[in-house]
Amino acid sequence: MPRTAHVTCPLCEATCGLSVTLDGPDGSDVTEVRGDRDDVFSRGFICPKGVSLGALHADPDRLRAPLIKRDGEFVEVSWDEAFAEIDARLRPIMAEHGNDALAIYAGNPSIHNVSTTLYGPVLYRAISTKNFFSASTVDQMPKHYTSGYLFGAPFAIPVPDIDRTRYLLMLGANPLVSNGSLMTAPDMRGRLKALRARGGKLVVVDPKRTRTAEAADEHHAIRPGTDALLLFALVNVLFERDLVSLGALEDHTNGVAELRALAEPFTPEAVAPDVGIDAEAIRRLAVELASADRAVVYGRIGTTTQEFGTLASWLVDVLNVLTGNLDQPGGAMFPSPAASAPGSSKPFRHGRWRSRVRGLPEVYGELPVATLADEIETPGDGQVRALLTVAGNPCLSAPNAERLDAALGQLDFMVSLDVYLNETTRHADVILPGPSPLERPHYDLAFYQLSVRNVANWTPAAMPSDLPQEWETLLRLLGVVTGQGPNADIAALDDFVAGEFARRTGADVASAAGRVGPERLVDLLLRSGPYGLTLADLEDAPHGVDLGPLMSRLPDALKTASGKIELAPESITSDVPRLAARLEDVPNGQFVLIGRRQLASNNSWMHNLEPLVRGSNRCTVQVHPDDAAGIGLTDGALAKVFSAAGTVELPVEITDVLRPGVVSIPHGWGHDVDGARTSVAAAHAGANTNVLTDDGPLDAPTGTAVLNGIPVQLAPA
Ligand SMILES: Nc1nc2c(c(=O)[nH]1)N[C@H]1C(S)=C(S)[C@@H](COP(=O)(O)OP(=O)(O)OC[C@H]3O[C@@H](n4cnc5c(=O)[nH]c(N)nc54)[C@H](O)[C@@H]3O)O[C@H]1N2
Ligand SMILES: Nc1nc2c(c(=O)[nH]1)N[C@H]1C(S)=C(S)[C@@H](COP(=O)(O)OP(=O)(O)OC[C@H]3O[C@@H](n4cnc5c(=O)[nH]c(N)nc54)[C@H](O)[C@@H]3O)O[C@H]1N2
Ligand code: SF4
Ligand SMILES: [Mo]
């Protein structure tokens, strides 16, 4: 008899509810995946990735047993053998060289997985290495940094109240393809349509006329990397025209006068030649933003992974404050999640330690992944000799990928928690697999903190797994790194973790009696959360619980030392002279490379699924027709693309959606490596664009990689 499981899709930030039909002798054959029409948040929405959850579950290349590399070949082993190997090889490295000799890289899916979200940090704290890296420094770290300094807490990220706004100025985001990021909002097409239907306006700023730009009222093709200049000019106009109006924020904000002074040189006329948008249009945008009754500015990855990522992220929030739209319905609001992991009670600061080789400051407990290769390659005290990756594929996702790939090959020991033997994990000595998304429980702890509506939805595992849950594997690793050996008492460690959670949240650990692992921790977090929910409440609501629209949260949400919004903190404003220098020295007209996301793709790791690699999901270099004509490129022919870091070859796709002078390559491809076990991906290999991105220039305050706006040259191959 077929049965239906209701699951929250864990593949992206949209948190769609899906109905999964299961059949077959042991109920583990996925016969259909549909959008769940009764889901309180997503109302039946689904994308091609969600549909492919069944293909992912069934993928024969997905690992189902631990692997150990013996004489260069991976062999399947038991869990006991795998842990014995880790204990025998990792412990001596840590004993001789210290914990900093073990680096950690946590990848994107680790935040889409309740086991690794909750138990990863437990292990990382126990290892306590300075060399902690994650996908955040190729993604949203500037946003944590600016939230840390403006609001006092790196996870206090305001999100656009998209269902109530009447004016949305969106920069560097393409949610009709990405399905939204730092903005949990299933069915973005429907939400943007509704915005326009109620008389609202959508303005998109993007070097490319994306799907989202096509669906907008207005599109401005900005020159890559110049968002901070544009945003500063908007601030300038607000002051010039006396349009600054903080409203309810007046008593809660410091730094307005400093900001006025800082914005002075950035007039629309001064920035226009570099930004590529004319001064008159910039003035009009500022006036529209200030006069719309509910307006919001939103920036995403095109604004964070660029040379001025921190300044651009900061100015997005600054504009929301100066127009009185922060914390107001229809503006940028702080969600009120039902459960959130306990954070630090101290106001945010960065630079508590620095990287050994380049002296880059720590931000939010991390060093930039752009410097991981430096730390592995450079001999001396504190050199990285071992690496643990958790759900990450830095060989495809980090800048200067060829160099990092070679560096991983030099490690003394590497362990990966991962579901594939791929470009990165092929360098591991031991790979520890986790269950498929349908074999584990799910709760979107991180993404409900970024949700445009307050909702809560718990997903029990749709079916049992033959593999240990990843929280158990992480605790077993905790046993190894803390010297308890390869067979530590996991239940005892878990009791200890739950006790600590209860202590930090004020919940009574006995109230969650009878539960273990993430179930117990989520139950404790819900109980201590603002709605007093329990896990049992959510278990009774398979389509989720709607907790209503976003609510104003100031001043309570502010954790700065002053208790106020700090609009002009020195840790941010000290980077303004670097931006001002750009006004004097506008880069010349060479080609610049930007990235792009594809609907049927998920960064680097879902290219092994036949249904997703068919059709339009192709790794090409997009070039504007005028540019192509100028250098003799023809559609479909191969081009060579060169940068300071490397060279790749890939097919040309000629399209007028790009701003002339800008070329675009998607990331996450380049599957033609030796030693991986992803047969479908290998047949659709594509090229790795991060061979072209450089690990040298970074967003100065945070060390976030510059992945957009890379100078490149092109030629027919
Ligand atoms: N040039 C360029 N580079 C980019 C970007 C860009 O826009 N341009 N975007 C950046 C961004 S935003 C991000 S987030 C990063 C992503 O960078 P990463 O997080 O390093 O890479 P992913 O492609 O997400 O790879 C995830 C890995 O997790 C594994 N995995 C999947 N599910 C699970 C699971 O349930 N458990 C475990 N243990 N493993 C799992 C996959 O097999 C894969 O190895 O890439 C960045 N790189
Ligand atoms: N289908 C699919 N969905 C995904 C992912 C995926 O790989 N595939 N990845 C997920 C992840 S990890 C993340 S972080 C999110 C990201 O979510 P989004 O930020 O919405 O991602 P993108 O679609 O890359 O949109 C970035 C846009 O920035 C533009 N851009 C590039 N440079 C600049 C610039 O200098 N200035 C401006 N203003 N714009 C610029 C690009 O043209 C692009 O349209 O998506 C998530 N969702
Ligand atoms: S939009 Fe995201 S959450 Fe929704 S089905 Fe697609 S991948 Fe899953
Ligand atoms: Mo990301």
Description:
It is a single chain. The mean pLDDT is 97. The chain contains 26 helices and 28 strands. 31% of the residues lie in helices and 16% in strands. The protein is globular and about 70 Å long. It folds into 4 domains: 3-58 and 436-468 and 489-548, Phosphorylase Kinase, domain 1 (2-Layer Sandwich), CATH 3.30.200; 67-140 and 342-432, Rossmann fold (3-Layer(aba) Sandwich); 158-333, Dimethylsulfoxide Reductase, domain 2; 582-716, Barwin-like endoglucanases (Beta Barrel). A 7-stranded mixed sheet has the order 5-4-17-16-15-6-7, covered by helices on one side. It has a 6-stranded mixed sheet with strand order 22-24-23-28-21-25. Strands 11-10-9-13 form a 4-stranded parallel sheet, with helices on both faces. The N and C termini lie far apart (56 Å). By secondary structure, the protein is an alpha/beta fold. Bound molecules: ligand MGD (2 copies), iron/sulfur cluster and molybdenum atom. The site of one ligand MGD has 37 residues, from helix 6 and helix 13. Residues 2-61 form the 4Fe-4S Mo/W bis-MGD-type domain. This is Molybdopterin-dependent oxidoreductase. Keywords: 4Fe-4S, Iron, Iron-sulfur, Metal-binding, Oxidoreductase.
List keywords for this structure.
7-stranded mixed sheet; Rossmann fold; 4 domains; alpha/beta; 6-stranded mixed sheet; Dimethylsulfoxide Reductase, domain 2; Molybdopterin-dependent oxidoreductase; binds ligand MGD; 26 helices; binds iron/sulfur cluster; binds molybdenum atom; Asp_de-COase-like_dom_sf; iron-sulfur; 28 strands; Phosphorylase Kinase, domain 1; 717 residues
